[in-house]
TrEMBL record:
It comes from Anditalea andensis. The lineage of its organism: Bacteria, Pseudomonadati, Bacteroidota, Cytophagia, Cytophagales. Keywords: 2Fe-2S, Iron, Iron-sulfur, Metal-binding. One of its GO terms (molecular function) is 2 iron, 2 sulfur cluster binding. Signal peptide: none annotated. Belongs to the bacterial ring-hydroxylating dioxygenase ferredoxin component family. Its cofactor is [2Fe-2S] cluster. PROSITE patterns: RIESKE. It holds the Pfam family Rieske. This is Nitrite reductase.
Length: 107
């Protein structure tokens, strides 16, 4: 059963919190997650790479909605978590969206 969390006081606060295309590490409840906003879309995913546990918040995102691990450059789809290049388990993702109340995320 997932729990709903809201980050930021409102939509504008959420946008300020998450500059476009920047990976932020946030603590949501007892879970650390990476958050990325790309225009109106928000992605949330586990902060440690499923390959060898590098810190994905030190990675980069590309224009195809993928996060690139800083260590061996494996790529993961931020929406589905699918590994797009490399061989390792998929990334765990969490439902997240931008709303008038802020960023809503389900952990
Ligand atoms: S630790 Fe992320 S690709 Fe190897």
């Amino acid at each position: 059963m997932s729990k709903k969390y809201t980050l930021g006081a409102n939509r504008e606060g959420a946008i300020n919190l998450l500059p476009d295309g920047i990976i932020k590490l946030v603590q949501v409840g007892s879970t650390k997650v990476c958050l990325v906003r790309m225009a109106e879309a928000v992605y949330a995913f586990q902060h440690l790479c499923p390959h060898q546990a590098a810190s994905l918040y030190e990675g980069k995102v590309n224009g195809m909605g993928q996060v690139i691990c800083p260590l061996h450059h494996y790529r993961f789809d931020m929406k589905t978590g699918d590994v797009m290049s490399g061989t390792c388990p998929d990334l765990k993702t969490f439902p997240a969206k931008l709303t008038e109340e802020g960023i809503v995320i389900y952990i």
